[in-house]
Amino acid sequence: MPELPEVENTKKSLEKLIINNYIINIWTDTPSLIRKNSLEEFRNNMLNRKITSVKRIAKNIIITFDGGYALLIHLKMTGHLLIGNWSIQKNKNKYLVTPKSMGALTDKMNGYIHFIFYLDDGRELALSDLRKFAKLIFNTEENIYKEAGIYNAGKDALLITLKELSAVIKLSSKNIKTFLMDQTKIAGIGNIYADDILFKAQVHPLRKANSLSLDEIKKIHISIKEILLFATKIGGTSISDYRDIKGEKGGYGDVRMVYRRDGKPCYVCGSLIKRIKINNRSARFCPTCQSRL
DNA sequence: TGCAGTGTTGCTTC
DNA sequence: CGAAGCAACACTGC
User: Fold this and answer.
1) If pLDDT is split at 50, 70 and 90, which confidence band does A151 have?
2) Average pLDDT of the residues in A53-59
């Protein structure tokens, strides 16, 4: 599940690997992932332009091209990008995509590759997406920023100051769990990190945002930075499908504190981690460490 | 075996 | 207007 740490790592890898390259061909078996354009427009407009930069806005990856164009990629639930080489076989109406190289790229996630961007030096950039929710848009850079800013993007979770966080929290009557996952309020946090952030800050997920004390907001602010930076450093979370650009799994799943640990003992006090529904999503927390309502 | 759970976003409905 | 529900899709686990 790509949240900020996974998208940030992908962005950093792309920055090292594809700037100054050209995309010379595109293969896909799922053109429906392209929004606002036909496959033909998408292909014809993108090919043979030089890649000039890679950015992250919230959970979006933006690849810019010479001439003021940009490609937006949102990985949604199960998308990830891979660099490698693949061969494609057509079997009736189905395509079989298999990696030519060995190692992490033989991972089963290779079975879900739906886009391949062929680079001018022989390497290939692939999009794997088990559930096919990812979104791709090619347009002028300006229009792409409008698109990425659909949310009236909240401040990036890595950049938001205590003052800014405090100001938006005080305006919200929602519970803090829902608030943290609202991309218009603060950008980059999803279910995995929201649960762990609130555990570290020792705040109950159902606490009303505008009821939090300055001390609690401080703890949340510190936890956001520490957890997202640490998770980024160790390669993100690969509990289900996320892989880095070389196909390797991230380490945060092994050190997570409460996410998907319901029924298991809290690492701090030993109480059993609870699971409740908030906003129709699972929320996990320690009933002892995060008891105050 | 069938069905709930998984989680991001955007569209529809109220 | 904001909030809530649900669809997009495929696989896992009970």
Assistant:
1) low
2) 93
* CA of A128, C1' of B11: distance in angstroms: 25
Å between A91 CA and B8 C1'? 32
Chain B positions under 7 Å from a protein CB? Answer: 5-10
Pairing of strands A155-156, A186-187: parallel
Model pTM greater than 0.85?
A: yes
Q: Which residue type sits at A148?
A: A
Chain C positions with any atom < 7 A from a protein CB:
3-6, 8-11
Tell me how crowded residue A187 is: count the other CB atoms within 10 A of its CB: 23
- For A169-222, the pLDDT digits (tens) are 999 989 999 999 999 899 999 999 999 999 999 999 999 999 999 999 999 999
Statement: the CB of A21 is under 7 Å from strand B = no
Q: A209 near A179, Cβ under 8 Å?
A: yes
Asked if A258 and A269 touch (Cβ cutoff 8 Å), the reply is no
Verify if strand B has an atom below 7 Å from the CB of A148.
no
